[in-house]
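Propose amino acids for all 232 sites.
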């Protein structure tokens, strides 16, 4: 498996390279935004890690150009700021996933594995396009992580980027207990400090969007004193 890492901060590039090589991936590094597109198209990669802030051309533009040229390789954007993450969700740049720095390598490895599994195992494809694969259904809701939207009864529900990320984390871990610490790590990213109260408030607002009776939740279940579980 070959991974192209487009990252201009030497420290991060080096730690990604070391970590991914340890995992058995072949890693190619590019530091300059202007070289990213030709390099990504020069040979087949299985996955691309793409920093947003790069010299000469930013990650959004690179991602957009690669998709425009028909490249289907999974792309994970690496962002330094939360407002960039919000931007990824707002713009349709064609990325498959994103992580906010500082991120945990453990979480990044899990995301990489998930994307590679999806890209290489057609048996897990529920439809002809990879888009069908990114739509998760529960009840009358559809969480569409390709278009970054939540639909209910076929209608788009207004959500914030954080709510979508949070819901995606729940759906990804259906039936599994998620502690607030784990949610914090998966959704906000490690190194970000928010109180339990903030997580709880987001859960409350999500319930209003997905539950028939938000005060008697069917999907987003509270596990007292510990966290939450998504039953869907
Ligand atoms: Ca950078």
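Proposal:
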């Amino acid at each position: 498996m070959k991974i192209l890492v487009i990252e201009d901060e030497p420290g991060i590039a080096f730690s990604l390279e070391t970590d991914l090589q340890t995992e058995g991936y072949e890693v190619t590094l590019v530091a300059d935004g202007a070289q990213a597109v030709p390099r990504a198209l020069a040979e087949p990669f299985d996955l691309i890690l793409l920093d947003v802030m790069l010299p000469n051309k930013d990650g959004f533009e690179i991602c957009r150009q690669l998709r425009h040229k028909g490249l289907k390789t999974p792309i994970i954007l690496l962002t330094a700021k939360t407002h960039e993450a919000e931007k990824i969700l707002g713009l349709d740049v064609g990325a498959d996933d994103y992580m906010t720095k500082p991120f945990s390598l453990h979480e990044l490895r899990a995301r990489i594995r998930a994307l590679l599994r999806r890209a290489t195992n057609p048996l897990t494809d529920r439809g002809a396009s990879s888009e069908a694969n990114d739509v998760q259904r529960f009840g009358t809701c559809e969480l569409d992580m390709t278009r970054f939207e939540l639909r209910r009864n076929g209608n788009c529900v207004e959500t914030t980027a954080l709510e979508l990320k949070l819901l995606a984390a729940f759906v990804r871990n259906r039936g599994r207990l998620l502690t607030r610490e784990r949610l914090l790590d998966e959704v906000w990213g490690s190194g970000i400090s928010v109180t339990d109260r903030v997580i709880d408030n987001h859960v409350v607002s999500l319930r209003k969007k997905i539950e028939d009776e938000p005060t008697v939740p069917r999907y987003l279940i509270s596990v007292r004193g510990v966290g939450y579980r998504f039953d869907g």
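The chain has two domains: 2-120, 130-230. The chain is about 40% helix and 20% strand.
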